Amino acid sequence: MSLWTWFGLKEGSASTDWPLKGDEDGQQGVLGMPRYDPARCEAGCDACAHACVTHAIAFSASTGDAAKPEVDWGRCIVCQRCAEVCPTGAFTTSGDWALGVHERADLKWDAEMSERIVREVPERMRRPFGRSLHIRHVDAGSCNGCESDLQALNNPYYNLHRLGIFFTPSPRFADVLLVTGSVTKAMHGPLLETWEAMPVPRWVIATGTCAVSGGVTGGNYASGTGLDGVLPVDIYLPGCPPNPAALIHALLMIVGRSRQRMRGGQIER
Amino acid sequence: MKNCGYKKVDVADLKTCTERLLADGGRMQGVYAWYPAPSRAELRYVATLPGQARFVGWSVDVGDAAMPSLAGVCPLLGWHEREIMEMSGVAFSGHPEPERLVTAFLPPGDRGPLEPDGATRASVAAGLPAPSLPAVSGRHVQLLPFGPVRADVLESAQFIFLYLGEGILHYHPNLFLKHRGMEKQFEGMEPASGALIAERVVGIDTVAHSLAYAQAVEDAADCEVSDRAAWFRLVAAELERIYNHLHYLGHLCHTTTLKVGEAQGKLLEERAKQINARASGSRFLRSMVWPGGMRRELDVYAIAEGLSALRPQVEQYIALIERTTSHLDRLISTAPLSQKLAFDQGATGPIERASGIDRDLRRDHPYAAYRTLQPTVALAQEGDAFARMKVRISELRASVALVEKAIARGVPDGPLLVPCAPAAHTEGLGWVESSRGTVLYAVHLGDEARLARVKIKSPSFSNWRVFPSTVHDSNMMDYAINEASFGLTISGCAR
């Protein structure tokens, strides 16, 4: 239809330049993981752990009154309840979302781990992909929130193609397996078959808190507890759901075009 | 409990009661089972009557004998009854399809997942067979199992086609591979936090699910939210409809290969989601609704500013779609759903309204601020894919107008959140008209006022039940268009 051709030409490009140029990442106002400042914790207070339905915040059984909560962003569903119930401001809301990490341990709060140098992706691992990626997505039991923001990557605003990244129908052509959901019992088999059909080298991204740790249904009669123990995971990206910019950041980490920004549960700023 | 008046009904009178309900123009919404005690099960039938804002219901004690299946009188109950058999272990006699549904892909256990610990009743759950395909034979008949991993970024489901050339002889969707046990997940939780689980039943219907859940808890607690909270709830619910309807239109263009139309629809959806983020901190409007009101305010200025920019773009987009004959040609007369079939099988939301059933919970059973800010309800008669799109377009326009009207009236005064703590052994019912149709939550509280049973009836469960009847005897070329015209989710169906 000439109607649409004319419309398309007249509208011009709607794509953001981020992350190549500028900072228009489209996430204005989006609340990310809360920030944690253990120095502000009050002795004997466990309001945050009580409010946290996925036990991202927990007290280990052995410690006493002066114990500080243990925090695992890999279990966080970004519900902001801890920031709401915390009486001292130890948990505060933030816009932190660049959470993709190579190792699961980097999502757990640990002051010493936050100082270490993160393992970089070696050049010889990057080269086979020619700095371009093809993704096969598998929904292994999500709520459709992750899919909605994954679909958004192909809208004109994020326009994933401009970064050389494509979704592919066949696992045979895929470099990256991007998995959402807690891995339900019924999707366990199809997920493994998809992975086995992929050529090596291949990468796996656990996308969203469900795939990282099981999320709200993890470990019940129908759901698994995410990808650990199911597939070898190369990038863990928690979030409920991870926003499109976080997804782009994680995908670019694989080809060495973005850096891991979270270490020991703390994000560099 | 005010939202639903329950009447005790004897098993022997069930069929007569159902026939009377239907004769009175009533509508069965569904049935579920729960266990007031480990040894005692009860069925709850939930229905609506015309001209009555409250829901009506029957509670039926389950005895030792099998319950009579009502699927013959009211076909939409067929799936509900199957779910009760496999999940709660209650037997039904005379059921036309006594097979597993939700647990079709789970290893069978001795008892259903929703039977309580220490249940003493005999359970039918273990003995139910897996779903079967009809025997279809013929020289050129082909079998195509498609999925569960399909091209594009899609939810997992497997579609089985038995087809001859282009013609589809039989279609069977396997929709429950991603059953996550959501209803069970609520058990034992304190009622307020349950809102976080409800938000994650269907990510793109976050407000609808959390609101229906919150209303059910408020019903159990006899709690009245403030006008202020009710106003924010309406605005959040309508914002959710707007981005979902835009996604629907973009995706429908994808299936008719109208590429620029797809790109534009999804760009507008993105802009709507960015408005949500600026207004609420979440692209999906999460972390807002809570039993007793709202956790946070929406940024009204961000919404007003965003919508005033979005509105002309939406109008221009709709005008282009409505003038594109290549798109319309693929929709007109495609996959018609008759009014009778839509009603009998329980179609809901835009699907039933496109088939001439004039029903919308926001108007007929108002909640939140819908009593004072009434929505315009769109209706079409043809029941084809084109009618379904027309209804969505009208609803999109109506939602934008309704939010603007709400903002023009101003935010009422009042507290954002009031205390809402239901007592032990109470129950409540809540409902919401989502962009896809009726969302229904029933909650039962047990000891220590913790959740004992939460029933979720989502619109996709109802509409997936209807959908296959529009696929049989259609052709492969139309399938993707037909499916997109229904606007279904798998997560809502499988839960």
Question: How do the strands and helices of this protein lay out in sequence?
Answer:
The complex is a heterodimer of chains A (269) and B (495).
Chain A: H1 2-11, E1 33-36, H2 47-51, E2 57-58, E3 70-71, H3 81-85, E4 91-96, H4 123-126, E5 133-139, H5 145-152, E6 165-167, E7 176-180, H6 185-196, E8 203-207, H7 208-213, E9 235-237, H8 244-254, E10 262-263, E11 266-267
Parallel strand pairs in A: 5-6, 5-7, 7-8, 8-9
Antiparallel strand pairs in A: 1-4, 2-3, 10-11
Chain B: E1 4-8, H1 14-23, E2 27-37, E3 40-48, E4 55-61, E5 67-68, H2 77-88, E6 92-93, E7 142-146, E8 158-164, E9 167-174, H3 182-186, H4 194-199, H5 206-221, H6 227-255, H7 259-280, E10 289-290, E11 293-294, H8 300-323, H9 325-331, H10 339-345, H11 350-354, H12 361-364, H13 385-409, E12 427-434, E13 437-445, E14 451-457, H14 459-466, H15 468-471, H16 476-486, H17 490-494
Parallel strand pairs in B: 1-4, 5-6
Antiparallel strand pairs in B: 2-3, 3-4, 7-8, 8-9, 10-11, 12-13, 13-14
Tell me about the biggest sheet of chain A? 5 strands, parallel
Helix content of chain B: 40-55%
Which word captures the global form of chain A? globular
Largest sheet of chain B: 4 strands, mixed
Number of domains of chain B: 3
Q: Determine the CATH topology of the domain at 123-267 in chain A.
A: Rossmann fold
Beta-strand percentage range of chain B: 15-25%
CATH architecture of the largest domain in chain B: Orthogonal Bundle
Strand order of the largest sheet of chain B: 1-4-3-2
H-E string of chain A: HEHEEHEHEHEEHEHEHEE
Query: Considering the protein shown, what is the CATH homologous superfamily of the largest domain in chain B?
Result: Cytochrome-c3 Hydrogenase, chain B
Helical amount of chain A? 10-25%
Overall CATH architecture of the domain at 123-267 in chain A:
3-Layer(aba) Sandwich
**Please, what is the oligomeric state?**
heterodimer
